[in-house]
Amino acid sequence: MIALDASGPAMRVTAQPVVFVGGWAAHRHVGDDAILRVHLEALDAAGFDVEPVVLGTDPVVLAARFGVRAHAGLDAYVLDGADATGAPAGAVQRLGAVAAAAAGRAPAPADADVLGVLELLGDAAALIDLGAGSLATQFREALWVQAATVAAASALGVPAAIAGVTLGPFDRPLDAMVMRRMLREASFVSVRDRGASVAEACALGRPDALPGWDPAMQLEAASDTALPADGGFAVVSVDAASAPGCAATIEALHARAIPTIAVPMDFFPLSSDVDALVDLRARLADPDALRVPPPTASDAELVGLVGAARVAFGSRYHLGVFAASQGTPAVLIHRNDYGERKAAGLADWTDGVVSTVPAAAGAEALRDAVLGQLGRARGPRWAAAQDPLPAIDWLAVQLQGRAARATVPEPR
Amino acid sequence: MILSPLAPIAVGDRVRSPVVFRRADGSEATVTLDGPAEFAPSAPDDLTGPAGLAVVVAMCLHEDLEIEGRIDPDLARRLDDLQDLYLAMNPQLRRAAVRVRGTARPGTPSPFAAVFFSRGVDSMYLAAQGRSAAGPFDAAIFVDALEPRHDADVRGTEVQLARQAAALIGLPLIVAEAPIRPVVDGLLDWEDAVDAGLAWVGHSLSGALGRVVLAAQDSIHTLAPSGASPAVDVLLGSSRLTVEHGSVSATRMDKVAWLTRNRADLLPLLKVCFVENRADNCGRCWKCLHTMAALRAAGGLASASGFPDQVDPDALAALKLDRLFDFHLFDTIRAAAVAGGDAELASALADSIRRSAAEGPKAPDGIVSHRRLHSLAIIGLVAGDDGEAARKADAGLGLVRSLDRKARRHAYGAGWKPPGQVTAELGALMPVAGEAQVPAWVLPEGSLATDRHGPAARPLDPRQALRYCLSGLRDGLPPGARVRVAVRRGADVALAARAAPPAAPLPAGDPAGFLFSEPGPGRVELWSGVHPVTGDQLLASSRDEIASCGYVDTVRLGWLAARAPVTGRLGVHESPYVPWFVRQPGLS
Lengths: 412, 588
Description:
The complex is a heterodimer. By secondary structure, chain A is of the alpha/beta class. Chain A is built from 15 helices and 15 strands. Chain B is an alpha/beta fold. The longest helix of chain B is centred in the C-terminal third of the chain and has 20 residues, at 479-498.
């Protein structure tokens, strides 16, 4: 599939863009990045004649991190003046304005980002919304930006997929409405659990949502990691709120001569996992019970590290995903409905390899759960071929359809 | 009337927006809408929402309207059209001069649309369709506190069941609280205010909704003058909110059949009954019965677990059809019953149609909907009375006095002749509260009460009782008759000593009509007195007439229109001998 790009000084042939949107920010978030990375790799492997373009808040950083073209998304326009709830006055109307402009029912807003996204989508073969994993009230600002992008694509006649996400919870009717519209406008929807997200999709008028594993299960472990592979250690990945509750578990493992290695997964400057883990280390009677290596490992190396561990625990969802993909017994902590939905959805696929525990149950409950998993046999390792990425399969069908349409002769 | 905004109150993630309706007589009602804060339009002095309803209320009251806030310019331009439409439906209303403090800045509409959702047949069908002519729905709106009979428990259950039904349909549910009815009750049939009321709710959510859709109760076959009409709804929108009336292509029978065929999972959640304080259906009222009939005809009654599992054909056959809408409704259900081979149901419905057509409509009592007025006129024309029934409704409800000798009392009818010998038609009550603002009820025993003067237990005064017995001996009757009168009066005294106090009117019930509270051209006084022993009520046009008969506690109830729509003869028709009167010397 090719398109003519006449914007340059000389006409040149480029591949049609496939646009990815999902709420990526300048900082690194291992789980969100893993979801995008596996899609980019799968797209590359499929050999379609298309060019991936990623939308985000900082296109320069994104382009550097993923090695693809990136473009500013609709974040700044839709969320202009966002208040503490993440739902700025007028955001609904701005969402509508983007859709109306895309449909040609109104002039486009005089905003460079909007104009750029509309132009990009106008040329695109497809839009794939990866949701950065979740579409929920918890991250409603990301939800709304993605909804505006899907609405624009839909109005432009560009097929859109929502792929591999957890849906909800939606604590506010307005968020549920935004999600419902998004689901209605997407030509394909897949979710990463077979329970709550499927029920949510049904309740929002999309009963055909396809359940499957988290896309990041596809991320393969680095083969050349220098980290110990003897299974004599545990890994922990935890956010600042959940970190203090992990101390008793780390000390119990230490008492059994099992050191714990910290795996930071979110590097947002204001709430970095690294800081949380350093604080956690300081709480321990023997700080050597927790090793906090410099956060330089690649995502694939982290998968390898989790795969080599005897047990993994913490509040970071993708620690659980990596553990499930490697068969490493794990315990996921959840502290609210949103976290519980994700954790339970993952655990449901794993036949006990991943278990869950609410933070409210206390540090001892976490410790007991982790020690229980310690005695458990490892699960099978994930084979990437067993569940190809649904969004890429869907894209293949879309591209074939377009190709077929393009070869139909014009009626005389 | 003056419409004033009060400051909105934020309560968690919701906002309460109070508005005051102040009438010319100084009475006022504050109505507070409550909804999600994210849906509220930003300007607190924006009275676009209640403006449409306020205009209609002012027209009923024959008052002008001052809006102490701003309203949307698009709506402001259409308020005259709205008044034209209501005047065309009901000439008894009066055009209101509307003064507005200013116009609001035109808003950008939200791309989201929602359908009002009560769980009734019409809204269940429309919501389950998922879209209207203008596009798909993004949410459903349940309006809480709209039904005055529902207590807190039932309201809670209603919200829960609405949520359940909306989830089955696949629509997020917005819950708004709107205790609007007190502003309207006593002035208009709710059907004639419902769309203006719901439009107010829609405007209160227009921060996040650009279109609200009201389910049509009519099909194209039954559209009639009504406040629940596409003709009204199109006038109630604004620059930021479209008020859309749902499609009128399907009849109610079509809707029930479609739900039964395609969404049987929703049938257990159907709710049509509003005559009782309950979240399911009584199975006995008019609306329940015809809905059950339609469900039975469609084969869905067994699945509709919110109703009794059987519909009584005799009860259906006994239903009296009053409106053209009713005749068409019954005929469509009858046709479905015939098609389904349900001869018993078809026969019951046919009986009701035949009997109702033969008997003609009931005389109007209380507040009459615009739809019913229209039906009365058309049915009257067809019956050859040249629209007499409708004109009678326009002329008011004749207050007829009759003498019931057997019961030893007078009885009164509002728009009809009560049992006994008619002795007067005292004037006419108004069917709706416009300038007439004193509600009046005809109590079960036949007396008249107002909100200011009701029947009260009156202790028997021994001296008055003795005078009553002895005065029988003085009446100009033959000696034997005088003795019989005295003995009978003695029995009256004995009965009065044991009698229970009279029943009071139910304030929640619709009044029979309205009295004027002030004198005016074309009005006659209405006085009431009480018999000192029997408690009989005597209504008359003058204080003297009452006093001359020996009645006491004389009070003026108000003024009637000087018309006699029931008998055609205003005033006293006959002055027969009344055995329990105590004639007062010097008075006649």
